Amino acid sequence: MPAPVALLSLSTASPPHQMPQGQVAEVARRLFEGKFPQFDRMAKVFETAGISTRQSILPIEWYLQPRSWPERTAAYLHGAVELFVEAAQTALDEARLKGADVDIIVTVSSTGIATPSLEARAMARVGFRSDAARVPVFGLGCAGGATGLALASRLAKATPGAVVLLVIVELCTLAFRLEDLSKADIVATALFGDGAAAAVLRCDEGGFAHVEGMAEHTWPGTLDIMGWRVDPQGLGVIFARAIPPFARANLRPAMIEMLASQRLGLEDVDRFICHPGGMKVIDAMEMALSMEQGCLDHERAVLRDHGNMSAPTVLYVLDQARRAGLPGRSVVTALGPGFTSSTVTLRSAA
Fold first, then answer.
1. Is the pTM here over 0.85, yes or no?
2. Any long-range contacts for 126-131 (C-beta under 8 Å, 24+ apart)?
3. What stretches of 95-164 show up as alpha helix (H) in DSSP?
């Protein structure tokens, strides 16, 4: 039997600037109350989001001035490369490998434009070989953690013995804006933070978990649920439809279908490791998948301490889960633009 695809290591990296939720709410009120007539009615989201603090690549003062796309791009390039290097190096150290050992680099990021891409900009600092294969991926949004892990697993399986490094970096705070506000912008201001995660995969009997399978489900006619709008300020968030009620109504049959493709049922899963898009999304996922209310404790803890960082967030949850002790079988799952549900099924190697 060939060796399974193993997760040899997992790391997370957060930028240094803290954004306490109370402080963000006060600043938002000062800035938006006179510009957005519905702000008072929406201000509750800062209290109900389940977030205590978040991290950002820049101090909060930077966001208090209008910023152009070139300014946001410059901030993205600097901050994303720094987080990329930190997350990648920590994951490689845990796997007892060096940058020169990496054969394939998968980079997932949807919150900025980088050409050359982030792994090219970080090559010298991490020590990647000049013949390392580079796979930059854009556009996955919040599903990028699960989909990126699935892609890295497929590449590791297709090239036995190859070391695959997955790095996910998102700087969601760069979407904060002061003009042309929408309800989605207020929600984004209350939810989004910055962060990165990385993992090393290889066909190996070791590691802390083995990849059993992966699956995706994209619902037709749902392009408007989540995405980016593009204007002179840069990328602005779109939440055209409420995600929690959609998840409550549609996630269960999609999950049953995805698991069935792996000859599994809901009852075969010991723990769902979910992307915490927001407190209401967590509640909706528990309801849709018939979990006890409150059982997604790692998800709530990550949301409380880091906010929604988009793609890397679910790997923060996986990191907490593995430190607490992974059960026999878990399913990493995230919802994202498309509108898509992405899953990766893991078996504990402990």
1. yes
2. 126/85, 126/88, 126/89, 126/92, 126/99, 126/102, 127/98, 127/99, 127/100, 128/99, 128/100, 128/102, 129/99, 129/100, 129/102
3. 118-121, 123-126, 144-158
d(CA 107, CA 261): 27
Strands, sheet with 133-137, edge to edge from the N-terminal-most edge strand: 133-137, 104-108, 164-171, 194-203, 5-13, 209-218, 340-348, 329-336, 271-274
Cis peptide before 276 (omega within 30 of 0): no
In the numeric block, which tokens belong to residue 214?
């992966």
Q: What is the tens place of the pLDDT at every residue in 32-90?
A: 877 777 788 888 888 888 999 999 999 999 998 888 899 999 999 999 999 999 999 99
Annotated active-site residue in 142, 172, 203, 274: 142
Contacting residues for 242 by C-beta, under 8 A, at least 6 apart: none
Q: Is 172 in the active site?
A: no
